[in-house]
Amino acid sequence: MMMYYVMEGEGVYPILSVAEEPHLPGGPWYHGHKLKITVPAPLEYILDIEEEPNSNINILYDCESVPTMHNSLLEALRAAGVDNLELFPARITDPNTGEVHEDYHAFNVLGLVSATDLENSTLMNKSETVTLLDTDFDGLVIDEEKTMEFRLFRLAENCSAIVVSEEVKAAIEERGILGIVFYGPGEWSG
Fold first, then answer.
1. 188 within domain boundaries
2. In whole angstroms, what is the distance from residue 167 CA to residue 4 CA?
3. Listed residue (102, 108, 113) closest to 37, CA to CA
4. 190 occurs within a structural domain
5. 105 lies in some domain
6. Gap between the Cα atoms of 61 and 47, Å rounded
7. Closest to 141 (Cα-Cα) out of 158, 118, 112
8. Range of the domain at 113
9. Is residue 189 part of a domain?
């Protein structure tokens, strides 16, 4: 049986957050299906004005409605066999330095999988019932038998969660990519 983890881009402190991101029709890219819109290239992002000196640009901005990742993370995902991403060139501008970073891609995860182990997961609100897309978990456990052997997917019960297999986790860790955090069984809340 393979372990699965929730992957988040928490960055290396201090982090510059995204101040402006593309506004595209169709809402956030969280629903796991192929986009039916024309996506401009490149997609433009502007970071916040720096409040702390030497702030870092994140490798993975996964909380944006149009999420982005650095090419180093994309290469690790591909090396681990991830092949269910829709990718679009992205340009991230840092107004603090004037630097323009073109080594990023906006991404859409193809695959929304209902893989929650309901017996062993803990809901934030005990009276809440599990729904698709926005269930709040206090401790999420993935049922490996429900993953359909995807190496990376969005969780159907909480589509903000990007779930990866242990092979994907290992490929990222082997490359020493900083700022990516993995939450194992019962550790993720969201």
1. no
2. 9
3. 108
4. no
5. yes
6. 11
7. 118
8. 4-183
9. no
In a structure prediction context, what are the per-residue pLDDT tens digits for the chain, which is 190 residues long?
Answer: 789 999 999 988 888 889 999 999 988 899 899 999 999 999 999 999 876 767 888 999 988 889 999 999 999 999 999 999 999 999 999 998 999 999 999 999 999 999 999 889 888 766 556 565 567 888 999 999 999 999 999 999 988 899 999 999 999 999 999 999 999 988 888 8
Please state the domain count of the chain. 1
User: In the chain, what are the helix, strand and coil shares in percent, each to the nearest 5?
Assistant: 10, 35, 55
The length of the chain, given as a count of residues: 190
Pick from 9, 5, 7: which is nearest to 179 by CA? 9
**CB atoms < 10 A from the CB of 72, how many?**
15
**Strand pairing partners for 70?**
104
* Residue 107 CB neighbours (<10 A): 22
Helices (H) and strands (E) in the chain, counts: 2, 15
Q: What are phi and psi of 83, to 5 degrees?
A: -135, 20
DSSP string, 41-62: SSEEEEEPPPSSTT-EE-SEE-
Take residue 162 and report the two structure tokens written for it: 């990007």
